[in-house]
Specification:
Blueprint (H helix, E strand, L loop, with lengths): L14 E2 L1 E6 L5 E6 L2 E5 L4 E6 L4 H9 L1 E5 L6 H7 L9 H5 L3 E3 L6 E3 L4 E12 L4 E12 L18 E4 L2 E4 L26 H4 L58
Antiparallel strand pairs: 1-11, 2-3, 2-6, 4-5, 5-10, 6-9, 7-8, 9-10, 11-12
The structure holds flavin mononucleotide.
The site of flavin mononucleotide has 21 residues, from strand 3, strand 5 and helix 1.
Amino acid sequence: MGKIDFKPGNMLYPLPAVLVTVRDRAGRDNVFTVAWAGTVCTNPPMLSISVRPERFSYEAIRQTGEFVVNLTTEDMVRAVDYCGVRSGRDQDKFRETGLEKDQAVKVKAASLKASPVNIECRVSQELALGSHHMFLADVVHVTVDERYIDQKGSFHLDQTCPLVYSHGGYFTQGDQLGTFGFSVRRKQASKAGSAVAGKKASGKKTSGKRGSGKRGSGPGAAGWPGRSGKASPGRKTGDRQTGSKKRSGRPSGQWSGKES
Ligand SMILES: Cc1cc2nc3c(=O)[nH]c(=O)nc-3n(C[C@H](O)[C@H](O)[C@H](O)COP(=O)(O)O)c2cc1C
């Protein structure tokens, strides 16, 4: 079987489906679903959302230059869909979905209590691209639900069961197959002399919730397409640590590994 040509279109999936909260100049809150969102810069931290100008929320963002990106979880899937098919022009989506508001810290919009991560943003640029206008924004504040912070101050996003949007469907995140840099990490000394491709060396974690562990166990089990489950070449230096660390006394959601 070969490949067939497809009409050029949006095929960059999976994506997070986020709930964006906005407050207009008159102080009216609204929430709507956005999948065309992305991280665009690490330092300064910046993200983008692309919004059709006909959205009710678009005008609020234009008026205030502020919004909050609220990450979503499996439990929120109905609300995520609902806020993406109903408009705040006609109804109060907070009341209809039961989504509770919190006041954001640095921006005037509300944030969502149910979201494990709230990313407060201030628009720096608007780019009219066509169907959508892209708002480039500075991340000015982040709050995370302390239920997912362990005793060492590391934040475990995976434990929130993030919601994934892919080609028209909502999905769960699936099992962890590795951690940042695992493909080049130095082999861990093993008494049995076993290869690095195993669970331990890759940092692979199977979520207790789903737990089949079957994903990723095909022919390229070590994560190299087209190769059988052989160990990746070891690297002598730079055994990078992954997972977040407490910095300057505050929990950090950032990887301590190299970021792209
Ligand atoms: C999964 C999903 C993703 C969506 N992503 C976007 C998006 O990235 N940009 C956008 O303008 N609209 C997007 N929408 C549509 C808006 O959320 C929808 O039109 C919503 O009703 C707008 O709300 P508002 O009129 O209250 O602003 C999405 C809808 C769904 C269901």
